[in-house]
Amino acid sequence: MKQRITIWDFIFLTRPILLVPVWTFLLLGYYRAGGYRFALPSKFLFVFLTYTLLIASAYILNQITDIKSDVINKKHLLLAEGIVSVKSASIVCAILLIVAFLFATRLPPLFFIFFLISFLFGIIYSVPPFKFKDRPILDFVINALGYGFLNFSIGWLTQRPLTGDTFLSALPYTFAVGALFINTTILDIEGDKRANAITTSIFLGKDNALRLSSVLLVFCVAASILVKDMVCLIAAAIALPLFVFALVKNDTKYVLLSIRIGGPLLVLLVGILFPYFLLLVLLVFLFLRIYYKKHFSMIYPSLSTG
Q1: Which of 79, 87, 232, 274 suits 10 as a labelling partner, its CA being 20 to 30 A distant?
Q2: Which range, of 79-88, 201-210, 227-236, averages the lowest pLDDT?
Q3: Which pLDDT does position 70 carry in this prediction?
């Protein structure tokens, strides 16, 4: 007998674990623009909520268009597992999108433009005939720009106008996201081949993809030094040996290690700057553990590399 769908299923349909990096880059942009650490202004909180709704809708759209490969890659996502129907997911996606853009009309025009570009990125990333997620180079470039620049800049705009400093300050994170994303595509090479996708890792081959991700992380370190961003520099400098080790060993286990240390480390550093953010992340982690244990009898998310 099919289990009755609950509000929790719709909440976890939005993939809260992927909302964590969205929140991370919003806070980083806010912080780098001179935002105060201990009392977030109402403008930032409103932007935080609005952008969360918008990106949540994009994540649902991605699942709707990607059910086949998610099944092959055993992602244990709710649409791929049949827990939530495509019709229900489409309705939730539309509601979130409409509410997000209604909220965005209350913000200055530049926010609306950035929100619109972000969602358009979500469309061309996921939806045929574009589907950049399955196209070499374009897959990691759109992720790097979406998180490292757009996401970061929206946080920045809550404190300061868009200037050349915005682009420079976003540069380290653009390189960092590109590097991390390439390594995630390495983990999905076999499943993506079966789904007829041609990601950067499939196009370049595993060895060259690892070389590219390592080079991008070197650029991240250099850019962090250039703009004097200690947060990004610490995370990248610690992660870089892991990327190089993954390249030298050419073992999927070490590729997974580079992802599961590099990304969470940046989240942890932002959590040190904003302790209430760390509490939010821990709550997301805890509820995901409970939910996935109940529905799939598995430990997720996990930092284990086994």
Answers
A1: 274
A2: 79-88
A3: 74
Please compute Rg for the chain using Cα positions.
19
Greatest Cα pair distance in the chain: 59
The tens digit of pLDDT for each residue in 133-162 reads 999 999 999 999 999 999 999 999 999 999
Contact between residue 260 and residue 178 where contact means Cβ atoms under 8 Å apart: no
In the block, which residue shows the tokens 């073992």? Answer: 251
DSSP 147: I
**Token reading at 52:** 């969360």
Q: Give alpha helix (H) positions in 158-205.
A: 164-187, 189-194, 200-204
Closest alpha carbon to 77 in 32, 14, 137: 14
As given in the structure block, the two tokens for residue 159 are: 């404190």
**In this structure, which topology does domain 7-296 adopt according to CATH?**
Farnesyl Diphosphate Synthase (1.10.600)
pLDDT confidence band for 305 (50 / 70 / 90): very low
């105060």: which residue's tokens?
A: 36
- CB-neighbour burial class of residue 302 (10 A; exposed 0-12, middle 13-18, buried 19+): exposed
Which residue, 21, 53, 295, is CA-closest to 184? 21
Confidence of residue 73 (pLDDT cuts 50, 70, 90): low
Contact in structure between 111 and 157 (CB atoms under 8 Å) = yes
pTM metric for this prediction: 0.92
**185 and 59 Cβ atoms separated by less than 8 Å:** no
Residue 36 in tokens: 């105060």
Residue 306: predicted pLDDT? 39
- How many C-beta neighbours within 10 Å does residue 260 have? 16
Whole-number Å distance between alpha carbons of 291 and 303 = 17
Q: How many CB atoms lie within 10 A of CB 129?
A: 5
Cα–Cα distance for residue pair 23/1, rounded to 1 Å: 38
Domain extent listing, the chain: 7-296
Q: Which two tokens stand for residue 50?
A: 């609005």
Residue 54 tokens, joined: 């918008």
